[in-house]
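Annotators were shown the component list below and the corresponding predicted structure, then asked to write short factual statements about the assembly.
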Amino acid sequence: MKYSLREQISHFLVQYAVPIIFVLLSIVAIPLSRFSTEYLVQEMVARLARDSFLVLSLLIPIMAGMGLNFGMVLGAMAGEIGLIFITDWNVMGVQGMLLAMIISTPLAILLGWMCGAILNKAKGREMVTSFILGFFMNGVYQLVVLYGFGNIIPIKNPALVLSRGFGIRNVTNLAGIRHCLDDLFSFNIMGITIPAATFLLIGAFCLFITWFSRTKLGQDMRAVGQDQDVAGSTGIPVERTRIISIVISTVLACYGQIIFLQNIGTMNTYNSHEQAGMFAIASLLVGGASVSRATIPNVFLGVILFHLMFVVSPMAGKYLIGEAQLGEFFRVFISYGVIAIALVLYSWRRHKERERARRSLRGAE
Amino acid sequence: MEGVGKSYFGNRVLANVNFSLKKGQILGLVGENGAGKSTLMNILFGMPVIQETGGFEGKIYIDGKEVSFNSPFEALEAGVGMVHQEFSLIPGFTAAENIVLNRESTTYNVLVEAFGDRLRTLDRVEIRKRAETAIDTLNVDLHPDMCVSEMPVGHKQFTEIAREIDKKRTRLLVLDEPTAVLTETEAAILLKSMKKLADLGISIIFISHRLQEILDICDTIIVLRDGEVVREFVPEKTDLMSIASAMVGRSIQGQSQRTQEDADRTSGEIILRVENLWVDMPGETVRDVNLEVHKGEIFGIGGLAGQGKLGIGNGIMGLYPSGGTVTFDGDVVPLNDPMAPLSLGIAAVSEDRRGVGLLLEEPIAWNIIFTALQVQNRYLRSILGGLVRIRDAAAIRDCAKHYIQALEIKCVSERQRVVELSGGNQQKICLAKAFALDPKLLFVAEPTRGIDVGAKKVVLDTLREYNRKNRATVVMISSELEELRSICDRIAIIDEGRVAGILPATAPSTEFGLLMLGKVQKTRERVTA
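Structure shown to annotators:
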């Protein structure tokens, strides 16, 4: 079908509405914030290293048609439990990180399998189900961490435990593994530190996703993602494939959270995971992904644009209105707002596309 | 292949069907909607629905061995391939990917040892080669790298068939109305490829409503009617007319007969004019309908299922996205606004009785007056000096009682919930609800679907009486041709979303049959998909 140039342009604008809005906002906000270019670039590099892995873990469920996996919060929890253990045992550095990953993997697999099985019962409503599931598991997590640790599971390090003798403190100090991956080998370019090891890991992950989509399993996932009935009728085990995609995503989110926290250096025991899901999903959507389509470039573009807004907006708010609080408000506003906008745009876009397809029905034109 | 013989006793849907098909032959299977074609194919293909409803009777032989498939996968194993009416394709995949779906060629890599065969890498080169071979066998012009969502319908169909060919085992191919969605050139290509496949030794069962195609390529033709094989034809010794009459000729019981008075009726001026109407109703797409309905007549709209006849009423009533011009009694009816036709005096009885037609959990009385109350603000009375209006319970009750009596609705009282009534009585309530609006024009869709013979007669008689007494125009949409012929003045037949022809009800049934089967050629604009 042929479309005029005008239609093609409007189609492009509809397709990339969210990133375009963010680019425009950034253009306005960056000069207002009075940050130096160097500072911003350094900040973006650090945040890319910190967040990309988490955001990348969202790609596989989207491929399998399960939407944005808020269930990655479960993986993040598993990762945090691993981190609590290694802090208690005082295992430091990269070995500590690896051990944390090893401890949390089975937990993440279990949680992912559970999440996948539940989502199979709620086909078509995966996003809201996994979102609520995240809240529910947060309760279980609190029970385990607040009462289990120190009571049932022995914790030796008194610095970790609340003064009453059981339960982990609100803030866990991860000094032992702080920046251990980032500093494994890093170098400076024009005064900007680049954590090469982390980026290598992220690069490997991207290669993995590209390779994975070329395997039989990846192909099956794409088929299931586009049409479950058709995929099922050719003998692809639909439910199993969906569970596998969630398990992979949860395990990767678990590693992503460990990488994220080694960069931060302290862990907000009861809140870190909550933000992980929300920020990762918002970043991906800002990068131009939709509920049904996301690519690796979406991830990096999204992380940069989202965090640029995130860093710049409080200062821009401060200089513009003299009130940093307003910028802080804007931060929260964008992260939730962008998810809402992206979801609305998604269904609006689908509507537009259906309308476009419908033109062929009019035999009498 | 030695032959497929099959019999199926007892059930109403299919009774004692026998036929055999030799290797490399094409069998044409024709019949009206509901004649049992789909059931027959479901049995052959081992669809789960057959097992769930108690299995089937009789025996099927393939290559002389008795077979009975419990699932479509078993049928596939045994070499039975089927191309359904609805495409079974992944929209975002290319033709090649769809052709090899779940049978992809793969190569080994190390991770297979750890995680099993599903982590084998796809061999794109080999996949493409296989797809090309299958497409070449079909001898059609189809690019393996074309994405399905961008294909015209014909290419989708070819992709489906190519998939069946790529399955090396396929020996029997069932094509369920493959040409229904194709343009004539595409259909011609498809028929040629089918012949080629037959020459390669693949047997084909070809279901179609286009009789000329069947005559052109089949080796034998079987006509199903009401679940029985009525005739078996050899194409050389028959013609279109005899097949068409074998398909539609049936005796009708319990339906009202035409009277002399009917024949003398004259109709008034044009009340409804429909121009270039298109309606996007899933499964009943209306493409380009032009028709005129005269005041005071009963106008029938018939045609096979899925051709768009139901879409016309629903489109005019604003229930599905639509476009075109509809003029009613001098006024243009705004489309896509359900309120507009109602307030102009057009009412409709939906074919979806339980979904759209009724508030199942509510009492009879409420159902009857519901639309009148909403649209015309009747059955309301003002209290507190007109500040608030509440329902007028007495008027509602009287109205409900009137219709219960007039339409012989069998119920305990007007307060009974509609969900407790039988289908026939529910249908009468739908009619009462439409009558309560005092419409100038009434759309009635499939009024006798799923109700017993006695209720059918009452429903049809009621419609006729309403038409005579109130001088109201009725447009009746039905799949049952004989029913339309018994009550309508003129009947339009819809084929592929367009009016195939409009005939007086007294025309012979074979002429209607030919219209339904798309035999009468019309100028068809090419629709870009």
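Statements collected:
1. Chain B has 20 helices and 22 strands.
2. Chain B touches chain A through 38 residues (CB under 8 Å).
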